[in-house]
Amino acid sequence: MPESGRKVLKEGLLEKRSDGLLQLWKKKRCVLTEDAVLLLPPKQHDPAAPQHPAHRAAAAAGEAARAKELHFANMKTVDCVERKGKHVYFTVVMAEGKEIDFRCPQDEGWNAEITLQMVQYKNRQAILAVRSTRQKQQLLVVQMPGQKTVRSAPNVA
């Protein structure tokens, strides 16, 4: 699990196209959670090699500082899925219009996994919004004109 305690649904390497003039493909370690995609530098060490706890903690802190979070609340869509050779190319479109290009091996299905989690996240948010509205309606206290009783709106589920 990441430092934030979020449940990791998928983890692996993706390639992200850089924003620079050359637009090179750079490897990123990608962590998919229920509410975001985290992009981290690829691991540079052998995970099987023993490591001192202080070094491990420092490495985790350094990674967290360089991590980029693409939160589903700020994500508009996953677009432009194209299969070429051994790769799948796709674009994540953020709410502010920024487009981030990725590629991965065809058999890994990152584009589908990210799309599915984004849709599920947005569905959960919509359900919470409806429940919140209903709770506000139920808690609305209405005093009927000409009556001294105070009552709340009927319980609608």
* C-alpha-based Rg, rounded: 23 Å
The helix tally amounts to 2
Question: How many beta strands in the DSSP annotation?
Answer: 9
Structural class of the secondary structure composition? alpha+beta
Q: In percent, how much strand structure appears in the residues?
A: 35-45%
Overall pLDDT: 81
In spatial order, strands of the major sheet run 4-3-2-1-7-6-5
CA distance, first residue to last residue: 36 Å
The best one-word shape is: elongated
Residue share in helix: 25-40%
Low-confidence stretches: 52-59
In short, what is this structure?
This protein is of the alpha+beta class.
Using brief descriptors, characterize the structure shown:
two-stranded antiparallel sheet; 28% helix; 38% strand; 157 residues; seven-stranded antiparallel β-sheet
Please characterize this protein's 3D structure.
By secondary structure, this protein is of the alpha+beta class. It contains 2 helices and 9 strands, in the order βββαββββαββ. It has a 7-stranded antiparallel β-sheet. The chain has a two-stranded antiparallel ribbon with strand order 8-9. The chain is elongated and about 60 Å long.
SSE blueprint:
Blueprint: E1 8-17, E2 25-33, E3 36-40, H1 53-66, E4 68-71, E5 75-84, E6 87-94, E7 99-105, H2 110-139, E8 141-143, E9 150-152
Antiparallel strand pairs: 1-2, 1-7, 2-3, 3-4, 5-6, 6-7, 8-9
